[in-house]
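Q: Predict the assembly, please.
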Amino acid sequence: MSSNKTIPHSEAAALFNKNEERVNWHDETLWFVREKRDRSAHQIPEWELLRETASQIKFNVLSNIHDYLVEFESNAQKNGIIVHWAANAEEHNVIVHSILEKHNIKQMVKSKSMLTEECHLNDYLTNRGIDVIDSDLGERIVQLRNEPPSHIVLPAIHLKKEDVSETFHEHLGTEKGNIDPQYLTESARQHLRDVFLTRKAALTGVNFAVAETGEFVVCTNEGNADMGAHLADVHIACMGFEKLIPQREHLGVFLRLLARSATGQPITTFSSHFKKPNDGKEIHIVIVDNGRSEQLGREDFRNSLKCIRCGACMNTCPVYRRSGGHSYHNAVAGPIGSILAPNLDMKKNADLPFASTLCGSCTNVCPVKIDIHDQLYKWRQVLVKEGYTPKVKTIAMKTMATVLANPTVFEIAGKAGRFTMKNLPGLVNNKLNKWYDQREMPEVPEESFREWYKKNGKATKGKNDEQ
Amino acid sequence: MVKQLKEKMMSSKESILQKIKQNQPKELNELPNLEPLKESELDVLEQYKSVLKSIGGDFVEVSNYAEITDFVKEKFDTSKRILTTLPELSEVANLDWTSDDPHSLQDAELILVKAHFGVAENSALWITDEVMGQRVSTFIPQYLAIVVNKKDIVAKMHQAYDRIGNQEYGFGTFIAGPSKTADIEQSLVLGAHGARGLTVFLME
Ligand code: SF4
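A: Predicted assembly structure:
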């Protein structure tokens, strides 16, 4: 995962696309999840009001985040929770390691936390002789395969039963060729139960932290966060500071949206509220910045900090579904990841905002109403301006800008485009046109909308004028 | 070393907060009114039952604890370890475990506790450490059973948080159905790490 060896998204996607059957399967699997989300959302008559409310709460959070953080820290401390602050990934890792060292703990169990992926915590701890085991089933599968998760909610969504069966056969000694999900899950259950019962430290993510009460909420379906945290002596919870919400009652809004948007479930099986440590035990919270305060200052992109990590934008994205999470070379993949990544490292992630059709589907499903596709478009402009984009795209963008800015050129370009696609398709459908990879170009209309409007629109307009 | 680290962390806190203060939007955005979200025409009990079924849970309507005792005797292996925090169920379940080492609950076959209330829209049950005996008790057994009064089922999460209000607890959780996963090719499997089954006793 070294930063200078990143394969650009388009190349990684091209590799993924070699196995067409698999791409189609990946596409369909995610679309299935997207459809579950739709059905679930449609059962709530006030769904749009709920999204709007969530979005407004998050606006309030962004404009008060300083005070809410101070409030959260003091309330958490009153509850007996130990609070730490980390400016970046390195500090985050050092803090986690120092807590383990203090207790002389060499083994830790983890539940899902994309933040620790972002900070590469597993590698950091492993290099220092700490044994780290991920306990979410999907995360455990990818960990055994030495891969990062390919999706923030469904870490192993890119793998088939056969892959999991192979992996478990190799590492957990399951029967070769047995691909029954029930059997495989049961094997993981037995293996992880041993882990839960022997670890003295457990690390979890945080879905929401409440300023008013100093408590934090962790949502899982498997119960792995709770098994880890309640059986260990030390519970370390890591959160990006944007996870904060003002009051306890606001949880009602977000818990209604999170699972429905993520998988279509009415709520996750467990929504656990950690407020105080049990007698004789410790709860630590590590509040992490790692570029977030920077993003807060970028007016065009600060709304990305409203994200509650439901993954809906990935499930719906036509590019994500056909290119796979790994092609994004970032802990958070898909549309939202493509907004967050350039903030962390513009050079390394300059390709990601281009990995989108800007179709707007992500924006439509986002439960907190982030203007995702607009932000992707804005990133493209920033990146072109700063000179971070690959040459071909820069030329295309510049041409596009000229064309869009000038109505006459736009009209001629449109005519020329239609002429070319119709009469010289080879010019469009070739290797130089990145758009044609994996796609059929559309049928060419006889006349453009503009031409049609010139003929027909005027008549309508005239009629209206008469009234 | 520890002192150095402490100082570094202190300065990180100051610099993070300062940067946030400087970068956060200047215009203040008011918090929205949650009242309109509370309106509901749900038939709470019917909704509760159907959602619970749809997420892999089960319910039994009972009018008293004796009926629960009978049900447990009939449906569960009473030769295995059965635990509860409810004195009314002492005939089938052990009450004397709440100060044991939490790890010792690993062989519990069934644990029975009572929920403060349930939520119709998602069939979740609100449980705090006051009623769970041990924090791990609702996660570690092979099977979980939760008793809730029918009159304690509210419509939506907004009503739920109205009910919780500023209640004190060390730990609280909403539980909706048995532990589950769909991480292997989206095939739903019940009993990932926690309970393989959840029975809700809906009490008159
Ligand atoms: S950007 Fe919106 S849709 Fe995407 S993960 Fe975040 S909250 Fe979900």
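The first strand of chain A starts at residue 82 and ends at 86. The longest helix of chain A spans residues 47-78.
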